[in-house]
Amino acid sequence: MIDTSATVPAQDDAAQKPPGRKLRIALFSGNYNYVMDGPVRALNKLVAYLEEEGHEVLVFAPTVKEPAFKHSGTLVSSPSVALPGRSEYRLALGMSGEIKRRLEELKPDLIHLSAPDFLGYRALRYGCKRGIPVVASFHTRFDTYPRYYGAKWLEKYLTNYMRWFYARCEQVYPPSQSMVDELKRDGIGRDLRIWTRGVDSALLNPDKRDMTWRRSMGFNDDDVVVAFVGRLVLEKGIDVFVETVARTKGVKALVVGEGPERVRFEAKLADGRFTGHLKGADLARAYASADIFFNPSVTETFGQVTLEAMASGLPALGADAAGSASLIGHEETGLLAEPSTEAFSPALERLAGDRELRARLAAEARRRSLDYAWPAILGRLVDDYHEAIANYDPAAPGGA
């Protein structure tokens, strides 16, 4: 199994250091406010923190008429089209004249990219040509997506592109040590630094468990409820979730989230309870009212939902792969298994059948989640920004 010993954030006072000079930052993203997911949550937290600390930030991303939520900071719209086959997402068409004008006005000290898409590519070229340091946060193994849509042959070409793209960034910020190890193995990125994620442990906590709500969802008090939280898309491993729950006796499924696969998901999981997208106190209640959290995904680079489940006092079952393995301590806060129904089912059955084991793992999961405080985490990222600017050499790695 992947070593998780180095994945808990160090408790230091990075966020209490004397402030450096105020920065001007351009952040480019393929999604910032039109679909809510873990990376978007982290980017909005970052922008809010930067502005609170007195830094100037402009965000450049595709937009829609009716965004999913009220975003943080100033957002400049990028021209875009609906992504074929996944119309809820937008494909940015590059940098418009308006984007270039706003960049010239901002005169950024640093460009932060959150995706290796066409907008990110153009922003990378812009920074390299103008001698502006470029850094990138690593949120998703996009190169693994084709395997879920019948185009696995594309994977090696996308991985090669990602090697090229991230080699031109001064620093790359994966969210976990296991993802650092994976990127090193695949030759992606030169200077890899962990930007982990935080959690609101006051909002998400075991006290939000609500038996009345559970009953209203159709669960009996003695049911063992297994929760899935996330976008209902193939790359989240929903087929594996369905097959595993179907094989495991004595469990019932609670599914929180929306996405293009919901209808198919509901048809396959006829006894499951589906809430749709939840947020805030409603989401906290759903987490805490379950008994086990199950995240079968192998595309996660961190697994924000797993951290949220831990804060809510749930033992977690996850894939022994980067993402889940960075958060779940095997036999400590949950269980890890090879990413297959054959491996997940006995692990889920073990958790379902052992109340004392669940209680022990849940208590430790909650305790460890308290280490993930946003201010210290974001303060360390700003320290990395300053270092990237101070050490920038326009002659290396040679432009885009």
Assembly state: single chain
Total number of helices: 14
- How would you state the average pLDDT, rounded? 89
Listing every helix as H and every strand as E from the N terminus to the C terminus, the arrangement reads EHEEEEHEHEHEHHEHEHEHEHEHEHHH
CATH superfamily of the largest domain: Glycogen Phosphorylase B
Query: What are the segments in which pLDDT stays under 50 over at least 5 consecutive residues?
Result: 1-18
- The CATH architecture of the largest domain can be given as 3-Layer(aba) Sandwich
What is the radius of gyration? Answer: 21 Å
Shape: globular
Q: Count every beta strand, where a strand is a DSSP E run of 2 or more residues.
A: 14
Q: Major sheet, described briefly?
A: 6 strands, parallel
Number of domains: 2
The CATH class of the largest domain turns out to be Alpha Beta
SS strand fraction: 15-25%
Look up the CATH topology of the largest domain: Rossmann fold
- Structural class by helix and strand composition: alpha/beta
What is the terminal-to-terminal distance?
A: 37 Å
